[in-house]
Amino acid sequence: MLEPTGPPGGNTRDASLRGLCRVGGVAAWLLFAYCLATMVQLLVLGGQPGTAKEAFDLLQQNRLVGLLRLDLPTVLALPLYYLVFLGLCVALRREDPAGATLATALVFVGVTLVLATPMGLSMLPLSDKYAAATSEETRRQLLATGEAVLATDMWHSTAAFVGGLLGQSGAVLVSVVMLRTRVFSRTTGWVGLVTHGLDLAHILLIPFVPGVGALLMMAAGPLYLIWFPLLGRRLLELGRTTPE
């Protein structure tokens, strides 16, 4: 097995580019922490509310718990992908500039599309208005609006679907680039390919075969706990390396 070589670019790598690798490495470790926290949250607090009424009640009883279950941590964590893939682009640009750039562009567009969808914060004013409403008609209207927000959020909307496809495609591509170069170990490349390949298949299948899609997502989830540390460690190594 080929071992990863030193930093790409050799003599041309400057301090600012090494800094981007370090930032990407830190972001990867933060995403690892987010994944762990999300698993704990799902076990302790549960997942996303199934109805607008449940979401409104949660936000009135405990806003923090309600926002956690409405995926506010995911909204805060997603921008870290910009930093991770910027670091990956810098690390791989000398070995495969076209592949690294295309993968980064796909992820950037995908994450931006997902972030543009409604999120848990959109439910806060609706929840307050629902609690203060004095007529059943007003409450029915607010519930209908809440259901519309849930139906177009980062898990269900067209923008989220396309964004997920683009983001996971970019992550699959960068894993292929890793396997074709010597900047990252083959283990990192293969773990990334399997992880994001499963997640890409999950996104493609969930609208048509929800049960299979959910199983693929469950299989991919724990692999992120392996991929992010591998990325974080290697990017930090590249960020510490001084030019020859």
Report on the structure:
Residues 5-13 have low confidence and may be disordered. Helix 1 crosses helix 5, helix 2 (52-61) packs antiparallel against helix 3 (63-69) and helix 10 (186-205) runs antiparallel to helix 11 (210-220). With 244 residues, the chain is mostly helical. The chain has helices at 15-44, 52-61, 63-69, 72-77, 80-92, 97-115, 123-132, 136-151, 158-180, 186-205, 210-220, 224-240. It has one domain (10-240).
Descriptive tags:
244 residues, mainly alpha, 12 helices, 0% strand, elongated
Distance between the termini: 25 Å
What kind of sheet is the major sheet? Answer: none
Quaternary status = single chain
Rg (C-alpha, Å)? 20 Å
Order of secondary-structure elements: HHHHHHHHHHHH
Average pLDDT, to the nearest integer?
91
Number of strands: 0
Which class do the helix and strand fractions yield? mainly alpha
Helical amount among residues, as a percent range? over 70%
- Total helices: the number is 12
Low-confidence stretches: 5-13
Overall form: elongated
Beta-strand fraction estimate: under 5%
Tell me the count of domains. Answer: 1
Short structural description:
This protein is mainly α and 244 residues long.
